[in-house]
Design the sequence.
C-alpha cells in the first residue's frame, strides 16, 4: 500500500507543468512572452509582448502599481521582464 501512495505522488508531481511548459502551451514562442515582475509587490505575470510598439506603461495585475521604463530601456519589458522586447532581441541577433 505504501508503494502505491509513493507512485501516486511521483505521478502527480511529474504531471505538473513548469513555467516554460506553460509558455509553450500558451501558443506563443518563448521570445514573444516575458515574465514581468512588479518591483512593488514582487508579483510575476506571463505577458505577451507587442512587436509593433514599445509599452511605456504597465499596471501590475496584483497591486495596480504602474511600471515605466527605467534608465535607457525602451519599454517596461526591457526593465521588468526576464526577456528584452522583440525589437531589442532582433537587434541583438544581428
Sequence:
Amino acid at each position: 500500500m505504501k508503494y502505491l501512495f509513493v507512485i501516486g505522488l511521483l505521478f502527480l508531481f511529474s504531471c505538473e507543468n513548469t513555467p516554460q511548459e506553460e509558455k509553450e502551451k500558451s501558443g506563443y514562442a518563448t521570445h514573444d512572452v516575458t515574465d514581468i515582475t512588479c518591483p512593488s509587490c514582487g508579483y510575476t505575470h506571463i505577458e505577451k509582448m507587442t512587436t509593433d510598439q514599445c509599452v511605456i506603461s504597465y499596471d501590475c495585475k496584483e497591486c495596480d502599481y504602474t511600471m515605466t521604463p527605467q534608465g535607457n530601456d525602451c519599454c517596461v519589458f526591457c526593465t521588468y521582464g526576464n526577456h528584452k522586447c522583440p525589437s531589442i532581441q532582433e537587434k541583438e541577433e544581428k
